[in-house]
Design goal:
The structure is a single chain. The protein has 14 helices and 14 strands. It is an alpha+beta fold and about 425 residues long. The strands form 3 sheets. It has a 9-stranded mixed beta sheet with strand order 6-5-1-7-8-12-11-10-9, sandwiched between helices. Strands 2-4-3 form a 3-stranded antiparallel beta sheet, with no helix packed on it. Strands 13-14 form a two-stranded antiparallel sheet. A hairpin with a 2-residue loop joins strand 13 and strand 14.
């Protein structure tokens, strides 16, 4: 990663500069990965030169961020190119544990799209009131899902004003195009195909977005808003007795939950060809408030998909697992996304790129070093408490520098085994 970033950011290195821009950005990402939330938190790394080498001073870091922000589009393109190259190497090293291993139409690579609100505590450039009566920004993010055994990693992060529409099709399309460019083996101008599944909540249920997904031959699973007059169709399903048992998160039959298809009962003439609408009904949780579209005391939800094969319960469970995207957003907010610390909009775009790097570094560590360990699913707070905070010291033996971990740390053996696995991965040529 540092080498790729150094090459990508070479135009921003001054002739007599001591610190390489790629190294500075990498250090910032590491600082966020261990819990930092501002540029000055690079001091944590600066205190350990034996481990992290020479770390730039705060003024040097600030000047670099300003320089990158002055030509933000070109700088972000360079950072994204370095991320793409690093991702390809990591996924190749991960082998069968990589998200794209054995990808097919039946087992596609899953990309989740979602937006979140980021509060601004001061008057930052382009900050605006939010629809939840707050003030800040409304970034749109995409993540590749690692499945039940892992976490996930960000592909694209689009910073937007807080009053940006939740269901803006142009933003969804732009975010996905940037996400596809991050996938190893993707060729610009080539349609991704059915080996990729795009999941989104109801904000993605627009004619323009779903039509674009169809033209790209992608699979999709998107939340769908039922019309308020659908009670007649639901009553017809009850009479026809076509409801099938739905699954819980572990793939087991959930008591009181059912799924059915209503494609033939709705007027979908204006929607893309091949779109199906599936619905789920279940008894609401205690205290839950029913909506006007709910039916006979049951909570009713729906989603649209163009996947033609598969049991209804499996397709519904696959869509409901989109909720893992909320976990990815929470992880990002614990790794620098909770607050945008800079004033200018382009500066904060650079900051979000560094946040993406930090989240990726953690996700790649878990994918490569904790293959069959529960630690592969640990979130940042637990990783920092149990592993990143283990006391250690460096010692030079001949021409080798060794890291000695505290023998009393409860998870020292887990970290030592992880470091051993990482050493077995060949270094990039």
């Amino acid at each position: 990663m540092p080498r790729g970033l150094s090459q990508a950011l070479a135009p921003w290195r001054k002739p007599l500069a001591r610190h390489d821009p790629g190294k500075i950005v990498t250090d910032l990402a590491l600082a966020l990965a261990v819990g930092g939330d501002c540029l000055a938190d690079g001091a944590v790394l600066r205190a350990e030169p034996a481990v992290f080498g020479a770390v730039a001073s705060d003024p040097t870091v600030s000047r670099l961020v300003d320089a990158l922000a002055a030509d933000a589009d070109r700088a972000l393109a360079g950072i994204d190119a370095a991320r793409t190259a690093a991702r390809a190497r990591v996924w190749a090293a991960a082998g069968q544990h990589a998200p794209d291993h054995g990808a097919s139409a039946e087992h596609p690579v899953v990309i989740d799209v979602d937006a979140t609100l980021v509060t601004a505590h001061s008057d930052k450039e382009l900050a605006a009131p939010t629809f939840k009566r707050g003030f800040g920004f409304h970034p749109l993010l995409t993540f590749v899902d690692h499945g039940q055994s892992g976490t996930g990693e960000p592909l694209s992060v689009m910073l937007r004003k807080a009053n940006a529409g939740s269901n803006t099709a142009a933003d969804h399309i732009a975010a996905l195009k940037a996400a596809f460019a991050q996938l190893p083996g993707h060729r610009p101008g080539r349609r991704p195909g059915r080996k990729i599944l795009v999941r989104a909540d109801g904000a993605g249920a627009t004619h323009e977005f779903l039509s674009w997904l169809s033209t790209q031959r992608l699979q999709y699973s998107v939340g769908f808003c039922l019309p308020e007059t659908c009670t007649t169709e639901l009553a017809m399903l009850d009479k026809a007795n076509v409801w099938q048992p739905a699954y819980d998160g572990d793939g087991q039959i959930r008591d009181g939950a059912f799924v059915a298809e209503v494609t033939g009962l709705l007027n979908l003439a204006s929607w893309p060809e091949g779109m199906r609408v599936l619905i789920r009904k279940e008894r609401p949780h205690p205290g839950a408030q029913l909506r006007i579209t709910d039916h006979e005391g049951n909570r009713v939800t729906a989603f649209a998909t163009n996947t033609a094969r598969g049991q209804l319960a499996d397709l519904e469970l696959r869509h409901r697992r989109r909720a893992r995207c909320e976990d990815r957003i929470r992880i990002s907010k614990e790794t620098g996304l909770r607050n945008l610390p800079l004033h200018d909009f382009d500066q904060n775009r650079i900051w979000l790129a560094i946040v993406a790097l930090a989240v990726e570094l953690t996700a790649w560590l878990q994918m490569l070093a904790f293959v069959d360990e529960p630690a592969r699913r640990w979130e940042p707070k637990r990783l920092r408490l149990r592993l990143f905070s283990i006391a250690a010291r460096t010692a030079d033996h001949g021409r080798t520098r060794r890291l000695h971990l505290s023998a009393h740390a409860p998870w020292a053996a887990l970290l030592a085994a992880a470091l051993d696995r990482l050493r077995l991965i060949p270094a990039p040529s």
